[in-house]
Amino acid sequence: MNRIIDSNTNYSDLLCYKKTVVIYDITHHFCKRFVEPRDRTYDQMIQAARSGKQNIVEGTIDKASSYEMCLKLLNVARGSLKELLEDYKDYLRVNGHKVWSADSVEVRTMRRIGIENSDPEYFLSLARVVQIA
Questions:
Q1: Which CATH number covers residue 117?
Q2: How many domains does the chain contain in total?
Q3: Can you list the alpha helix ranges (DSSP code H) found in the chain?
Q4: With 81 labelled, which of 26, 49, 74, 105 sits at a CA distance of 20 to 30 A?
Q5: Residue range 4-52, pLDDT digits in tens
Q6: Residue 129 lies in a domain
Q7: Are 100 and 106 in contact (CB under 8 A)?
Q8: Residue 76: strand, helix, or coil
Q9: Residue 60 belongs to what domain range?
Q10: Residue 117: pLDDT above 60?
């Protein structure tokens, strides 16, 4: 059987983990800047980002005893990140911002940038420069 995650893999070496660190950090920054702390969405978004990251950690640790549990937790991480994506889309829609289509130039550009960078500080530096009207 081919393993998605080798039994010797450390979660911190996984690209998906590195990307979820970026997602968590950016989400935390975004919520502090644009979402009212008393708004339930504030906690929901941060917790969804955290859950995505933490379930990758737990899943890769649990693979030592149960590959099935590893896959279940990675799926939970995926679900949390999809939930977070919907929260971002909701924010854009209700605040009158454009939601880019999946095949737009903007999405293709952001995907390329995401592939090329895994450092949270890089993305936070972009966030500091970009002003949302």
A1: 1.20.1440
A2: 1
A3: 15-34, 40-62, 67-94, 105-116, 120-129
A4: 105
A5: 566 667 899 898 999 999 999 999 999 999 999 999 999 999 999 999 9
A6: no
A7: yes
A8: helix
A9: 11-122
A10: yes
